[in-house]
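pinging the channel bc i need a second pair of eyes. not urgent but kinda urgent?? the chain im working w is below, pasted from the shared doc
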Amino acid sequence: MKLALTIFLLNACYITLNTFRTMLVVRRQRLWAPLLAVLEEFVYVIALAIALKNINSPVNVIAYTVGFGLGIYLGIIIEDHVALGYVNFQVTVKIDNDDPKYQQNKKLPEDLRNNGYGVTETWGYGRDGSRLILNILAPRKADRRLMELIHELAPEAFVMVNEPTQMSGGFWSKEVERRFRKVTHKEKPNS
């Protein structure tokens, strides 16, 4: 049983590292992904050697496979916690001067800016009239909070989120990061 536990833990560790490293590769982390890969392969060689040497026991095989599943879960949890990179929200809201329900959407960009987010506004036209289209770039650590804020301020908004792999220019990189930290620190004492 001790051997099965060792196989389980080693494979869970290997797959956790593998999952996290894969996410680093997708985000083009050219330094951290290869460094993590070295540690990942070290654990893999040890885990596989022990598992293959003791493959004759069904308990060891089960320990290896369950460790694999747990490793994927833990890798995702770690990556969510670290939340590297940025997300781009495209928010589309209806604007209708005759309907008070939609008039409040005109304030949405300023409300989001007051919460520390950089917002770029454009206008569009949909099937039923004018639309305000907002592009908001935010740290991934803020994506859940931003989604909740959008739903609170404009419950009928259409929101599309994607993860940019490269960015260049704009005032985003320093100014919004500073503003985001400032707003986040203000909230912490009240929590």
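so Residues 1-83 form one domain. and The first helix runs from residue 2 to 26. — does that match what u expected or am i reading it wrong
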